[in-house]
């Protein structure tokens, strides 16, 4: 009688988005149900009005244009989780702070993940000993400085590669600046929660590649499963964002938008607040930003696309699983100030 075949261990069970109860994201549950209720109410009571036609076209166009990029990003994130070892990334990063931060801010070009997927990845990298400044730079820069975001941004703006390049450059420079700032102000002990600082074993626990190699078919299925989970978890935010963008385009008078657009500071602040509230995926937010092309200046649109992947409500909830409160406060305020000043400087230079 042949010995029993050991069950195949599962690989990389760590790539998942924390459920709403763990992240404290009750706001998003309410927003999602509210969005569904609003859509049903609009269809029932206002479907024959001209405004509903405008809302429908805006909502559907934003959602359908962003959908392929969200699918592609979720699939790539799933394959990275299953096929790329976490230690492979830490081996790439230099030991010295400045080179480590400069490199980490651009790691998204090699490991393209959105901001929803990058938080648990960075947490594991911190547990593997990744320097604090490098981790912050990757956390903030990775969701922007990657080829998927460049492609989606270019498509959203009518294949304008210049705008995509501006976004990636701004994301990289701000991520580097924040990495250097946090590295100067905090130590790992003062910044990270105890569970985040804990060193992981070099094997076992499903955190490294299993001793018994998995079949390629099993790995593929796991990668697709991770990708499907990512897509279902982040796709709901796109629905809410597309609806809010459509409502703004329909209900806000053009005169009001013109008044805001006349003041660069007000328009930038308004779009920064909108980016924080909407909490869109970085692979889809360019389509929402592009819907304001005719009403708001480019600096305001760029503020929306740069700040959102670095700081929004869902990210703040996830940050509390990694960082101490003081670090989150400094990170949030400093990122907001740097983005605002950067976009204002860009607006002044463009005039």
TrEMBL record:
GO terms for cellular component: plasma membrane. Its main location: membrane. It is a multi-pass membrane protein. Coiled coil: none annotated. The chain crosses the membrane at residues 27-46, 58-80, 100-122, 134-157, 163-182, 257-278, 298-320, 327-349. It is found in: Cell membrane. It comes from the Bacteria. Keywords: Cell membrane, Membrane, Transmembrane, Transmembrane helix. Belongs to the UPF0718 family. This is Permease.
